[in-house]
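Let's do one together. I've listed all components of the complex below, 420 residues spread over two lines.
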Amino acid sequence: MSTLKLDPIACRAHGLCAELLPEAIDLDEWGYPLLRGGDLPAHLLPDARRAAAACPALALRVTSDVSRGRPG
Amino acid sequence: MRLLTDGPQTDLMFPDRVTLIQEVLASGLRGRGGGRFPTGLKLQAVAGRKRLVVANGCEGEPDSRKDHVLLSRSPHLVFDGISLACHAVGATEAVLCVHEGSPLLPGLRYALASRGTTGIRVVEVPRRYVASEESALVSFLGGGGAKPTVTPPRPTERGMLVDNVETLAQLAIVARVGARAFRDGETMLVTVPSGVHEVPVTTRVADLVAGPVLAGGCGGVWLSAARAADTAIGEAPGVAVLRAPRGCGLRDTASILAYLAAESARQCGPCMFGLPAIAADFAELANGVAGQALDRLRRRLPVITGRGACAHPDGAVRLAASALDVFAADVTAHTTGAGCTSTTRRTA
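Okay, and this is what the predicted structure of the assembly comes out as:
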């Protein structure tokens, strides 16, 4: 299964990702991405890859591994 | 009472690595830098070709003094712990980090020199709140800025063991007395308004400072009187530092949030913008200005958590949420223009 992963340090709030993948990405009031968690449905994968490729900061990626993010 | 009274170890014994790690696991020792991560698990997780032990003596939490007292009274116990940790993870080098210009430096260098060749060196770190966060220290030691980095990979995956100095001192005690004796008499250092004390980990928070109490400093939470009576200091969140509210709990919280906002490394949007926003909301709430501050807080707090590279914003959100809970009566009083309960509450 694939998920979206965001590098919060690289992200500069360009907002292209939310434009290209509104089904899975919202923007908070400061323009930063809110990723709807969990696995990406298969039909969204092509758009997800386009969104990741479009990010000027290369902050977004589509990952298919199960690497853990920072624990809370 | 061991941490503050143990002098130089003339005969530092090194049990074999596997036994040492097993003893640390069996001891139940958890980190004393605020994260409370099981130390034995961290030792096991160190992997990679080049290994380094990083002893964190920066004590970035403003009200905390325990690491300062430990390093000043029992530097050799800390150095014993560092040497044992190196042995456990197969590191030949270690650094002890303290803040730039720390008054501890001459004493530490003297104590270190008296031990001969150790592979340990003392490093000065910039005086910023987030500079002594685990990944920030690793970044700084690698020649980068003292700012948190994205994880994974965690420091252990890069061959680095980062532990608070008290944790390492505790590790030295485990090696000396064994896991069973350690568990039976486990103590910890806690900073309270009257100073630093060494107490059994089972001591109730309320027996040290009656609630409502700020447990864990700026990176901690407010505990109600009931929770404080029910919580052992060994289980309290964050670094072991306790204090009563300074006047109105909401105003106190607003001031802490302003500090946390100013100390953001400003690398991640939700922290860089979210923390000043909730600090301003809390200031409005504290000032009893009629308005939407409470609604904004309720909307914003859940949105900020988990979206930065480190736990700095999460800590601020956790603190704010605990204040709204513990000082709920004040929230009502402030938002209805009825004044504040702190004018009648006697603090311990």
